[in-house]
């Protein structure tokens, strides 16, 4: 039995037990309240018969008191039952929404991180030829076609207007990639929701192209996601590439959206990556493997072959 099933079963059992206990408590309280109310009403009739005003007022007071107590007891009992129902439904959603990564459910996850044109696609293509590895490129096709709108191009044209729109959509799509089910024992992702926040959101904010309120909203979203949702990762591979090399590669591949990307922009992204991964500006969610990636294609393929066992072994350990 998985931990999620155990948690759900335990809370269900607690709910049933609470309901079973609450039912006799309601019946017992009702019976005692009716007996007391009958005695007080009898006392009230005797007081009326003997014209004793003091005793009559006392009987009225006691009647109202017993009725009030009776109502409060019923409310408290129904509140207890309500709490048990809430715990039952919460246990259901927790067991459905939590992905447990233990035992046979564990899938090794590797993030490939690096600057624009650092060689991430080449790395993914090399490992995609390996059996039992699922590679997940960045969902750029979604960012460039949001119901017919090229959001990535709009952001490059006017980052202050479209920065938060693109980064919010990137958070959504990257979260979907992280949470997507897989049958392969190893998943290799191009970038992550962490680099979206620590690199690209930070770059927009620090360069003055994102208002502080937009930055605060994205930070709040990121903090909530990473605190309340499981973002699996076992190894971070950083393709450490100089901004100059990235700039030369950008010129060669000629993607339409990247024509406006300057060397200064690549230098900013590079420095943020160095601060995050090498300078340890924040605690990393997994061990780090740095691969120098300024070399040509053939040399990089040789490096991947040499480090293949280290990458796959570290992820599966």
CA radius of gyration: 32 Å
The helix/strand series, from N terminus to C terminus, equals: HHEHEHHHEHHEHHEH
Overall structural class, as computed from helix and strand content, comes to alpha/beta
> What is the domain total for the residues?
2
Return the average pLDDT rounded to an integer: 80
Annotation, overall tally of beta strands: 5
Record the SSE blueprint.
Blueprint: H1 3-49, H2 53-97, E1 108-114, H3 120-128, E2 133-136, H4 140-143, H5 151-157, H6 159-179, E3 186-190, H7 193-206, H8 212-228, E4 235-240, H9 243-253, H10 263-278, E5 288-292, H11 297-316
Parallel strand pairs: 1-3, 1-4, 2-3, 4-5
Helix pairs in contact: 1-2, 3-11, 5-6, 6-7, 6-8, 7-8, 7-10, 9-10
Domain Deoxynucleoside kinase: 110-311
Keywords: Membrane, Transmembrane, Transmembrane helix
Organism: Periophthalmus magnuspinnatus
Describe this structure in words.
23% of the residues are buried. Strands 2-3-1-4-5 form a five-stranded parallel beta sheet. It has two domains: 3-97; 103-316, Rossmann fold (3-Layer(aba) Sandwich). It is of the alpha/beta class and 317 residues long. The chain has helices at residues 3-49, 53-97, 120-128, 140-143, 151-157, 159-179, 193-206, 212-228, 243-253, 263-278, 297-316, and strands at residues 108-114, 133-136, 186-190, 235-240, 288-292. Helix 7 (193-206) packs across helix 10 (263-278) and helix 9 (243-253) packs across helix 10. 67% of the residues lie in helices and 9% in strands. The radius of gyration is 32 Å and the shape is elongated. It is built from eleven helices and five strands, in the order ααβαβαααβααβααβα. Keywords: Membrane, Transmembrane, Transmembrane helix. The chain crosses the membrane at residues 31-49, 61-94.
């Amino acid at each position: 039995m998985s931990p999620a099933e155990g948690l759900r079963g335990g809370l269900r059992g607690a709910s049933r037990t609470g309901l079973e206990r609450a039912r006799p408590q309601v019946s017992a309280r009702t019976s005692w309240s009716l007996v007391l109310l009958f005695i007080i009403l009898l006392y009230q009739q005797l007081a009326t018969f003997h014209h004793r005003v003091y005793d009559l007022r006392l009987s009225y007071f006691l009647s109202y008191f017993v009725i009030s107590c009776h109502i409060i007891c019923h409310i408290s009992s129904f509140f207890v039952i309500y709490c048990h129902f809430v715990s039952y439904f919460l246990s259901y959603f927790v067991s459905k929404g939590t992905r447990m990564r233990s035992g046979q459910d564990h899938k090794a996850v590797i993030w490939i991180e690096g600057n624009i044109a650092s060689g991430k696609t080449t790395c993914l293509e090399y490992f995609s030829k390996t059996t039992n590895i699922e590679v997940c490129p960045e969902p750029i096709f979604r960012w460039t076609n949001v119901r017919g709108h090229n959001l990535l191009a709009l952001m490059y044209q006017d980052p202050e207007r479209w920065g938060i729109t693109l980064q919010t959509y990137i958070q959504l799509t990257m979260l979907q990639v992280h949470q997507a089910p897989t049958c392969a024992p190893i998943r290799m992702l191009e970038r992550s929701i962490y680099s979206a926040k620590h690199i690209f959101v930070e770059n927009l904010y620090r360069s003055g192209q994102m208002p502080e309120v937009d930055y605060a909203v994205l930070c709040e979203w990121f903090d909530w996601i990473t605190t309340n949702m499981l973002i699996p990762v076992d190894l971070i591979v950083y393709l450490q590439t100089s901004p100059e090399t990235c700039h030369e590669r950008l010129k060669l591949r000629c993607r339409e959206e990247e024509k406006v990307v300057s060397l200064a922009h690549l230098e900013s992204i590079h420095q943020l990556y160095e601060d995050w991964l090498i300078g340890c500006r924040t605690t990393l969610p997994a061990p780090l493997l740095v691969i120098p990636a300024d070399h040509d294609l053939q040399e990089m393929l040789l490096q991947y072959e040499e480090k293949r066992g280290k990458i796959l072994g570290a992820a599966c350990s």
